[in-house]
Design goal:
- The structure is a homodimer.
- Chain A is of the alpha+beta class.
- Chain A has one domain: Arc Repressor Mutant, subunit A (Orthogonal Bundle).
- The first copy, chain A, is built from 6 helices and 3 strands; from the N terminus they run ααβααββαα.
- A 3-stranded antiparallel β-sheet of chain A has the order 1-3-2.
- In chain A, strand 2 and strand 3 form a beta hairpin.
- The longest helix of chain A has 21 residues.
- Chain A is globular and about 45 Å long.
- Chains A and B meet through helix 1, helix 2 and helix 6 of A and helix 1, helix 2 and helix 6 of B.
- Chain A binds a DNA duplex through helix 3 and helix 4.
- Chains A, B: Keywords: DNA-binding, Transcription, Transcription regulation.
- Chains A, B: InterPro entries: HTH_HxlR (IPR002577), WH-like_DNA-bd_sf (IPR036388), WH_DNA-bd_sf (IPR036390).
- Chains A, B: This is Transcriptional regulator.
Chain lengths: ~100, ~100
DNA sequence: TTTGGTGGTCATGTTTTTTTGACTTATTGA
DNA sequence: TCAATAAGTCAAAAAAACATGACCACCAAA
């Protein structure tokens, strides 16, 4: 088939895009922290060592754009925003567990 | 437990290190191409679109240092080198397949 | 109408990664 | 001895990622 090679390339590109998305700064931390429930921007900033607003913001935005996280304004009083794993995001959980176990090989 | 958090951090760090190793330029391609059997430097250079010697060399060296690839000189005629997946490398195969399927979500 | 809290953005530097092009080593065959 | 081929290395430039500090938007209460 002539499509075989191009299909494979597409797969590789997607795998690479996903890998890149997940491996950027603070992304694994955001991911793992969000396993325990919804997260607020300020708490992430506090809880992730060395995190800064700009990178964290970029991480959250990109993960949201990829459909892995969802963003929800929960209060307008002093303005609260929550980030939580989408269904798609939750489907990556076993992947992360696998990754952590591989890390120990 | 006080160890719980540090354990998780260790896991994250290891996962992150592995993510970095696997997500670098051309690494997923090298990985997937090597599923079909041993690879030569020049064929990788040909088959991976946009690949350049330096980055490819770095990818191969790092994957070898991590124990995922093995390097073998197979001929001394015009000097041939083969790269192939180690046992450890092969153990990552399902992980990559999972990644590729996620890429399509 | 000024202050305070939360959740950001923007412009600018700095650091890390990747690319590029010239050079190297080893071996064979002419 | 000289060219050719495979598999690289090295230094420098270019590009991408990341960090920093200043600033903005929104709303409420004082």
């Amino acid at each position: 088939m002539t499509t075989k090679n191009s299909d494979k390339n597409t797969e590789t590109c997607k795998a690479q895009a996903l890998l890149k998305l997940l491996s950027g700064k603070f992304r694994p931390e955001v991911f793992r922290l969000s396993l325990n429930g919804p997260l607020r921007f300020s708490s992430l900033l506090r809880d992730i060592p060395g995190a800064n607003k700009q990178s964290l913001s970029a991480a959250l935005r990109e993960l949201e754009e990829a459909g892995l996280l969802e963003r929800k304004i929960i209060s307008i009083k002093p303005l609260h925003v929550e980030y939580y794993l989408s269904v798609k995001g939750k489907s990556l959980v076993p992947f992360f567990h696998q990754l952590e176990s591989f890390g120990e090989i």
